[in-house]
Amino acid sequence: MTTKRWILVAAVLGSGIVFLDSTVVNVALPRIGRDLPRSFLGVLEGQSYVYNAYLLTLSSLLILAGALSDFYGRRRMFLYGLVGFGATSVLCGLAPTMELLVLFRILQGAAGALLVPGSLALLTANFSGEEQGRAFGTWAGASGATTILGPVIGGLLVDTISWRAAFFINVPLVVVAVWATLKHIPESRDEQATPHFDWLGAAVVALAVGGLAFGAIYGQQRAWRDPIGYIALAVGVVATIALPILMMRSAHPLIPLHLFRSRNFSVTNISTLLIYGALYVTFYYLTLFQQGTLGYTAAAAGAGAIPGSLLLIFFSRRFGSLAARYGPRWFMALGPAIMALGVLWYSRVPATSAPWRLQPADPSTYLPTLSYLIDFLPGSMVFGAGLTMMVAPLTTALMTSVPVRNSGVGSAINNAISRVGPQLAGALIFVFLTANFYSALASKLPGVDVSSTSFRNQVSPLNTPPDPHLVAVVRDASTSSFHLAVLVGAVLLLVGALVNAIGIRNADSLERQQPVAESDPVPQAGA
C-alpha cells in the first residue's frame, strides 16, 4: 500500500472513530443506565449526560483544536488526539460509576476534537487536484458508513458481549491509525505562524460554541422551562458577538479573519448552516414520527435509512473526483435541491402508515412492509442521491478555499458550524412545531386544557397515549407536525441550493495557489 493510501487510512480512521462513537454509544445507553451505579444522577439524566457531554466538549473545542494543529503541527496534534481517544475509550469501558463515565466522556470529546478537523487538514496538506477530490470523497463516504453501521455494531456488541465493548472497539482502530501516522504521515504546520498562540481567543471561542450548543440541547430537553438553557444561550451569543471584535484587535488572532475574504469559504459555511440544519430537523422528527406515532421499532427506524445512505458510501468518492475536475458549484446546488425532493416525499406519509417492526428474534420481520416501500423508501433513495452529490463537493469547495497553512482552523470552523448550527435551528423549530402540535389538539379537543402540565405529561409529539379515545387525534396532530417539519427542512435545503448556485465560484479553488496580496495582513493560523 502506498504512503498516500496509508495517509488516507489514518485520516479516515481518525475521524471515523469520532463519528462511530456517538452512534455506537447511543444504542448502548439503556443498558448503561441499568448497569452502572449512580451517586447523584438519575437514570435518564445520566444517559443524557453520557451522550451530550461528549458532543458538547467535541463541539466546543473544534476550532481550538484546528488552530492548535496548524500552529504546533498537524501530525503531532493528530497523534495526540488518537492516543487520547484510545486511552479515554479504555477508561470509559472500565468506568465503575455513571458519574465517572460522564467525566471520561468529556475527556474523550476533547481528544476527538483534535481528530475531525485534523483529518481533513492532513488530506489537504498531502493531496492535490483530482486526487484530493477523491480523498475527500472517500472521507465523506467513510463518515456515512460509520453513521450507518454505528447503531448496528453497537446493538451487536451490547446484545452479545457488553455495553463496555462499545468503547473497547475503538482501541484496535486507534492502534492502526497511530501506526499509519507514525510511519507514513509527514509533519506540516503553518510556517508563517508567530510564536504567540491566542489563548484568550480560544477561551472566547469555547464559550461561544459551548454556550450555544449547551443552551440549545439543554433548553430543548427541558422544553424551555428551565432558565439555565436561556442563560447558556445568552453567554454563547455575547461571546459570539465579542469574537470578531477580539479577532480584529488581536495581533495574533486564533481565527484569521482573512479566511472570510474567500467567497467560497464564506458561502460554504452559510450553506452548511442551512443544509445541516435541514438534516437535523428532518431526521430528528422523522425518527420521532416513525417510532412515537407509527410504532416503528428503533432497529426498523435505523434500518430504513440504510438504502439511501449506501449511495453515499459507494459513490461519494466519484463525486469528489468530479468536483475537483469540473468545480463544485453545480454539484453543491443540484445536490440539496434533489435532497429537498426526497424530503418532500415524506410530506405525503399518512397517519395510518403501517409500521415496520424489526425483531431480530423473528426473521420474518426483516421483510419491510408495503407501507415502508411506498411511504419512506422512495424519499430515502432520492435524498441519498442528493446527499451523495453534495457532501464531497462541499468538502472540496471548503478545503480548496483556504490556504494550506490554515487548513486545520478552516476545517474546524466548518465542523463547528455543522454541529452547533443545526442544534440551534432544531431548538427554535422544536418550539414552533410543539406549539403547532398542541394547537392542532386544541382544535380537535374542545373543552380540554391542552396547556396544562398534567395533560402534556401524558400527551406529547414524542408518543401516542394509551387512551384509545385520544389515539386518533394525537396521531393526526403528530402527523401534521411532522409534515410541517419536513416542509421546513425542504425549504432550508432549497435555500442552501440557491445560496450555492449564486455564491460558489469554481475558479475560487485556484486562489489558494496564489500568494497573498501585499496589502493583506500576513495570515496567522492560530498564532
Q: What does this protein look like?
A:
This protein is an all-alpha fold. It folds into three domains: 1-187, Growth Hormone, Chain: A (Up-down Bundle), CATH 1.20.1250.20; 198-253; 262-511, Growth Hormone, Chain: A, CATH 1.20.1250.20. The chain has 19 helices and no strands. The protein has helices at residues 3-35, 43-72, 74-94, 98-113, 116-126, 129-160, 165-168, 170-184, 199-221, 227-249, 263-293, 298-304, 306-326, 329-345, 370-375, 377-399, 407-444, 453-458, 468-503. α11 packs antiparallel against α19 (468-503) and α13 runs parallel beside α16 (377-399). The longest helix has 38 residues, at 407-444. The radius of gyration is 23 Å and the shape is globular. Mean pLDDT is 82; it is low at 508-527.
Helix-strand blueprint:
Blueprint lengths: L2 H33 L7 H30 L1 H21 L3 H16 L2 H11 L2 H32 L4 H4 L1 H15 L14 H23 L5 H23 L13 H31 L4 H7 L1 H21 L2 H17 L24 H6 L1 H23 L7 H38 L8 H6 L9 H36 L24
Helix pairs in contact: 1-2, 1-4, 1-5, 1-6, 1-8, 2-3, 2-4, 2-5, 2-9, 2-17, 3-4, 3-5, 3-8, 5-6, 5-17, 6-13, 6-16, 9-10, 9-17, 11-16, 11-17, 11-19, 13-16, 14-16, 14-19, 17-19
Key traits:
single chain; 527 residues; mainly alpha; Growth Hormone, Chain: A; 3 domains; 19 helices; 0% strand; disordered C terminus
Quick summary of this structure?
The protein has 527 residues and is mostly helical.
